[in-house]
Amino acid sequence: MKKTALWIKKRLPAALLAVALCLAGGAAAETKESVVGYQLDTIITLTAYCEDKAVLEDALKECDRLEQLLSKTIEGSDVWRINHAEGQPVEVDPVTAEVIRTALAISEISEGAFDITIAPASALWDFKEETPALPDAEALAEAASRVNWRALQLEGNTVTLPAGMMIDLGGIAKGYIGDAVRAYLENRGITSAVLAFGGNIVTIGTKPDGKPWKIGVQDIDGPAMESMLVLQMGGGSAVTSGNYERGFELDGVLYHHILEPATGWPVQNSLASVTILGDSSAMGDGLSTAAFVLGEEKGLALIESMKDTEAIFILKDRTVITTSGGEKYLVR
Ligand code: ADP
Ligand code: MG
Question: Taking Cα atoms as reference points, which of 112, 119, 102, 170 lies closest to residue 294?
Answer without folding.
Answer: 112
